[in-house]
Specification:
The protein is mainly alpha-helical. It has one domain. The chain is built from three helices and two strands; from the N terminus they run E-E-H-H-H.
Amino acid sequence: MLFTWQTDSICVVFQWWRMYNRFTVAISFLGIVGLGVGYELVRELTRRYESYINSVSRGDDMLLPLIIKRYLPDRSMRDRLILSFLYAFQVLYSFFLMYACLCLFL
């Protein structure tokens, strides 16, 4: 990838995702912004699922300090697998988004 000001048949990420003129550059930019919004949605869903697991598994016991409450290992194997999948998907999504931005701007 080289830095260029030309908008002549630039491949963004995939072979079929090409920019031929300023209109397709603008559409690609909006698509990458949409991917960024989707990434933030995935992050928020992961956070909500994790807080749901924490509230269901531990209850709202005010006797335990928050630091101790956070590190109690009482999550089920299913919950751990789902969270692992969500975190892995988040990392994959973030690398794809970073590569798409890099291809668009360089």
